[in-house]
Structure formats: C-alpha cells, structure tokens
TrEMBL record:
Keyword Membrane: yes
Keyword Transmembrane applies: yes
Pfam families in the cross-refs: DUF624 (PF04854)
Alphabetically ordered keywords of this record: Membrane, Transmembrane, Transmembrane helix
Organism of origin: Occultella glacieicola
Name recorded for this polypeptide: DUF624 domain-containing protein
Matching InterPro entries: DUF624
Segments passing through the bilayer: 25-49, 81-100, 112-137, 149-176
Length: 220
C-alpha cells in the first residue's frame, strides 16, 4: 500500500514538473517573440531534464524558473542556429516533395521521391536527438549537428528509439490534442532524455576516485 502511494506521489510530482516546464516553454517562447524564443526554450527544457536525469551532483540547484531562464539565455544563439538550419532543411525537403507530387512521380522522379522520403526520415531522427546533445556537450551548433548525424549513423537503434518516442508522442497528441497545452514539448523531451541517458551515449559527470585502501597492519 505504501509503495503504491509512493508511486502515485511520484507520478504527481513528475506530472506537475512537466506541466511547469511546458508553461515556462510557452512563456520564454513568447519572450523571444516566438521567432527567437522557440528553439532556446526547447533547448532549456532539455537542459533542465538533463539535470534531473543526472541526479544530485552535490551542488545547490536553483529554482526551476531560475534554472530554465539561465539555460534559455545560454542557449539563445546556438539553439537558434541549430533550429533554423533544421527548419531550412525541412523546408527544402517539403518543397522538393511538393514539386514532385504536383508533377506526378514517374520514372526518375519516383526515384528522387524515394530518396527524399529517406532523407526526411533521417532528418527526423537527427531532429529527435539533436537537442539533448546540444545541452549535454559544450560545442558549437555545427559540431552539435554533426554529432547528431554521427549518432544516427553509428548508433542507429539508439537514434531510432529517440525518433520513435517523438513519433509516438506526436501521434498521441494528434489523437488527444488537449494534452498539447498541458505537456507539449516536456513529455517527448523527458522520454528522449531517459532513453539516451540509459543508452550510454551521454557520458555522465566524472566521479571522484575512491581513496585507495590501506591494508591494516598485521597484529603480532
């Protein structure tokens, strides 16, 4: 009974935290005028959830809003570069697909359309993992994008798992759109964070080495 109560309490705490994170995501997206706030707010959600996954690191952790705001400011430039590069890539793929669809995919055009579908699937996988990599590694946006591409190529099952989480969440949101304003970005971010963290692709903080044991002197 106590264990069941503990699970319910924990579920309530997680649900409340995700709700607050999604509200902060909306607030800071608007703070950046949507155009400059959307991608940094997305990165900030992942940054907070990354700290949650790491657990207590011995330091004093700020409040949720203060931590979110600090992450939003620190990721402002890098996240926008990453986000808009991905947006341009998606726009090119969708435009090319629209042109082929309007003209009728026959012969060579059908082969190009198949390549575009593969490229779109690969870009979806990269988009699913890039934000967690962006907040975990202190690198520039281009290096982060390259890391996401390498992850998709070198660890396809791990990357596909993150993409599947995002795809399933989007399907659930499509079926139950009322969940979007409540949990929004926070739920897929939390699940992706957990999946990538457990896979081992995100190295954790170095732990201090244990002191060597000194053998006790032999008693005479």
């Amino acid at each position: 009974m106590l264990r069941l109560l503990g699970w319910h309490t924990r579920a309530g705490e997680v649900g409340l935290r995700l709700l607050l994170l999604n509200l902060l995501w909306l607030l800071y997206t608007l703070r950046g005028g949507i155009v400059l706030g959307l991608f940094p707010a997305t990165a900030a959600v992942h940054a907070v959830l990354r700290r949650d996954a790491m657990g207590h690191d011995g330091g004093t952790r700020p409040g949720l809003r203060a931590e979110f705001a600090a992450a939003w400011r620190s990721e402002l430039r890098s996240a926008n570069v990453i986000g808009y590069l991905l947006a341009v890539a998606w726009a090119v793929l969708l435009t090319e697909h629209r042109v082929l669809t309007d003209g009728g995919a026959q012969g060579l055009a059908a082969g190009v359309a198949a390549v575009l579908w593969f490229a779109a699937a690969f870009l979806f996988v990269v988009s699913a993992v890039v934000w967690m990599l962006a907040v975990h590694f202190d690198e520039g946006p281009l290096v982060t994008l390259r890391r996401a591409v390498l992850l998709a190529l070198a660890r396809p099952l791990t990357a596909l798992g993150a993409a599947a989480i995002l795809a399933v969440t989007l399907c659930v949101y499509y079926v139950v759109p009322g969940l979007i304003p409540v949990f929004g970005v926070a739920v897929p971010a939390m699940l992706t964070c957990a999946q990538l963290w457990r896979s081992g692709v995100l190295p954790g903080p170095a732990r201090p080495a244990r002191p060597a044991r000194v053998p006790a002197p032999l008693s005479h």
